[in-house]
């Protein structure tokens, strides 16, 4: 599965002006709810929040990958945002986060969940890719950068 199969241009936003983890998770819920028939914004937010309560999805180096599984989701969906100002996300390295890739998958497909998380983490583990994402000036550019074919060197 490629990222463009789960992420759409209208699910990417650059330089978002949110100042808390809760507000970011609410925004993500609003962004992806229209793509999941039969799933409410509240269901999405609850799923993301429950996962955060188990432990932060801030993986370090300014990156967070909030994720959740949804009972009534028919397909996986994702959202990608960069923040105008980094926000405390209780990341494992105690550094604030400014790149957030959210993933929501059907509850009955844990294998897809793990495969997609792994692919996203691999892409965001590339320093050149993250640098390019952070320097994006438009949501369209952000989408293009993250959905480019994976290479070992970068996403730029």
Number of domains: 1
Structural class assignment: alpha/beta
Largest pleated sheet = 6 strands, mixed
Q: From the 3D coordinates, which CATH architecture would you assign?
A: 3-Layer(aba) Sandwich
In short:
The protein is α/β, with parallel strands linked by helices and 156 residues long.
List the helices and strands and how they pair.
Layout: E1 12-16, H1 21-32, H2 41-54, E2 58-60, E3 63-64, E4 67-70, E5 77-87, E6 97-106, H3 110-124, H4 127-134, H5 139-147
Parallel strand pairs: 1-5, 3-6, 4-6
Antiparallel strand pairs: 2-3, 5-6
Write up this protein:
With 156 residues, the protein is an alpha/beta fold. The protein has a single domain (3-147), classed as Mannitol-specific EII, Chain A, CATH 3.40.930. The chain contains five helices and six strands. It has helices at residues 21-32, 41-54, 110-124, 127-134, 139-147; strands at 12-16, 58-60, 63-64, 67-70, 77-87, 97-106. Strands 1, 2, 3, 4, 5 and 6 form a six-stranded mixed β-sheet that branches. Strand 2 (58-60) and strand 3 (63-64) form a beta hairpin. The chain starts with 11 loop residues before the first strand and ends in a 9-residue tail after the last helix. The model is unreliable at 150-154 (pLDDT under 50).
